[in-house]
Amino acid sequence: MVQSAMKKFLALKASAGSGKTFALTVRYISLLLKGAKPKEILTLTFTNKAANEMSERIFKTLQNLGEDEAYLEQIIKNSGFSKEKILEKKEKVLEDFTNASLSIFTIDKFVNKILREFCGYLGISDDFEIKEDDIENLSAKFLESLSLDDFDKLIDFQLYEKKKYSSLFDVFSELFEKNETFKPLNIDASLINVQKEQCMKLAFQVKEHILNCPNASNSALKAVDFENFDEFITKSWITKNSPSEYNYFKKCSNEHLESIFSNLKNKIEVYYKIRAGFSLSRLFYLFNLFKEYKTKYNRAKNYLHFNDISNLVYELLSTRIDKEFLYFRLDSKFSHILIDEFQDTSLLQYKILEPLIKEILSGDNSFKTFFYVGDTKQSIYRFRGGKRELFDYVLKTNTLVEVEVLNTNFRSCENVVNFVNNSFSQLINYEYHDQNAIHKGGFVEVFEDEFLANKEKKDNEFENIAKKISQLMQNGVNSNDIAILTYTNDDVLNIYSYLKKMFPSLKISTEMTSKLINQENVKAVINAIKYFYFKEDLYKENLNAIIGNEPNTSFDLDVDIKNQSVQEIVLQTADLLKLTDDNVIKLIEECSKFKNIVDFIYEIDKMETSIENSEQIGLQILTIFKSKGLEFHTVLLLDRIKQKNVDKNSLLFEYDDVHLKNIYYKIANIESFNEQYKKAQEKEKALAKDDELNILYVAMTRAKKNMIIFKKQNKSVFDLLSLNKCAIGEVIKSDEKSINYEKANKVIYKPLDLGTQEKPVSKENEKEYSLYSRYFGIATHYCLEMMNQFDQASLDYSISLVKNRFSSYLHDNDIENIKKRIKKLIENETFKTLIENASFNKEQSLLYKGELKIIDLFAIKDNKYYIFDYKTTKDELQEHKLQVNHYKKAISKIENSDEVYAFIIYLNEDEAKLVELK
What we know:
There is one protein chain. The chain is an alpha/beta fold. It is built from 32 helices and 24 strands. It has a 7-stranded mixed β-sheet with strand order 13-14-12-15-18-11-19. Strands 3-2-6-7-1-8 form a 6-stranded parallel β-sheet. Strands 20-21-22-23-24 form a 5-stranded mixed β-sheet, with helices on both faces. The longest helix is centred in the first third of the chain and has 47 residues, at 255-301. It is globular, with a radius of gyration of 33 Å.
């Protein structure tokens, strides 16, 4: 028996790439080996993906236990068992884990599980839905519910605060998230007017003094040009500590003016206290009314918002049920808690978990453990309630919990790690521990991009990014290994559209949740249909701008919007504009919910459906937020393209550690008269700066081998780190080789017009080219791409994938037709002879003279190169030959070989015809 090194109560500060998932897996398996039952180990993550990956990682590690020395070594240390004992226990532990009801959840799912069990205590049905609030309907119903007196208070508040009714609900949402008790004070509004009058008496004395001062300049006279309180309170001189501090009053300043000014400052300070107190009081009163109404509304509609669920569970655990009853109903008593990404836990989530954590930390001698892991530098969800201060707060308030720091980076190469160390270690008041790298080399470049976010060069904004991608591919980096990280979903869409124009054949994946109606082609189709309906030039010009036409370009499109269904209108419009893609297809599917064209026109902007992304591989474009937890061979990190939105929140929340200390109502200039508010404001600015730094840290720790930063020339977010133009190290090539570059010095970036695989060349062909034939061709290519071998077993497997993916677009007989055509190919003797004993790549990228193309099948045998291009069209067109000859010429030059053979394979119903190009 080896001495167990497992610490019962442990907090792990794990920097990016330092192996926190490894540590979690080791801990979990060690607990199983020490006798813990799977359902007793409550393991909480923040995403469904992370929860699934955790379960899978534990299962695979158990399966292969003994093969991976790194895991085995750490499990021996943590469990205290010898290698032999661990291997002896392996099968039983694996069997128990496989058959057990696991307690691995997202925090949201765990909280939801509690509410489902106990919802009867709150008068809620257990089949409630979880969805977003329909604010438009909810707010209208709330108005109807108000008494005349309360309605007057609402209107008065709106007028007084100059707030739109809809913006009130943003404030209410924030208060819901905080889940604090807000008790309104009864402040008489008339006190505000009384205080205003007292301020104005003194203000007019200041004015009189300046007007009677012989040395007063025109600027000084202008400074006292006011007649009422609203004009006076905006004057900048009132924020000064004395009149002598204000340049224009210096020549008129004396003891008399100083005395008046001092009294005036005191009166203004009292005014702001009364004014802010009244606003908060009235806001809390209205919020409590809304909260009460929303509870009834939710019950009547049988749905809850995500925030409602957490609030209700906290109410349950704090006032309605005890933890013993909770364990009984959940059919489990948790003896071990493991929490991942602890820095993203919200205060409300922690309040829900705290009783369970306290139970484990109670100090008895039973086998109980608590483990949480995170990295405060990766806390980027404060806007969603994440409270990074919780990490250290739990340590400070629970002396039994020990802390360890993981500082070895297993992800990134040395040059990347050192660059990040140098960038962050010099920051003041930012907790950073230098990381150690185990991989040598790596490449880092900071590139000053004159095009990025430059309004004068908007059309070429991403030109340097396209050039860099091309250069990387020429230097041996596979496009599948490249990820572009940016700040917003809008950026993702814009970059995607630009790169698709530059590299039409390049596969691009976008990990995003942007609305479907914001996708470029979909937006164009919607504007076109609105133009047909309203006949207003606004929509025509929107369409022109989206598809790149000159302003005032007219459209001669014959679309019958009166007699066709909405789906038919969308399909015809997209086809006429040549905009049909996966997202437009998804729009067509979603349009089944619209009764008629009028319904579509007035409701389409409310559609919440997310964008479609059919590519599972390829160059990736995603937001920094989406990249958290991921890693990429090569990262292109873009500057913040649009300036960060100004904080328009009406409330300022001040915390002392994790306890709410104060809530302030934001009023212009109040910081000059309220020292507490000023300190709270400075604290908030410091937190906001840390948020920006954390986002940069997450972004700069995703790259394994190469990182290229695109920095704006002005107002760059990278100025926070004082980054300057540089290049460190050499580009590391991809392990998976790909012929996707041209061995030439000069690269032309404008795509060549060489035709595409299904491009119509005549009106007759254009008629035959339809949405159906397009998807039939795509599905056929997909089936061939998914086949590991050209045999019947691979064909059967690939056809099953085609059914899953394309059954919405094709009938069963179409899929059977695809199978029949491909079967003829794999039985073709010429084809079988050519590929026998050959190594081959499918969907092979080829970059030649700046044009990126995809070869359907590229085979190498006996130092000879074979190109195969699949066609499902009936006609053998000249443009097919031009296209494939282009591939042949490119491969010949790249490989410096005359032994290159090119074939077009026409997959017809009656035969698979191979046409060799001489």
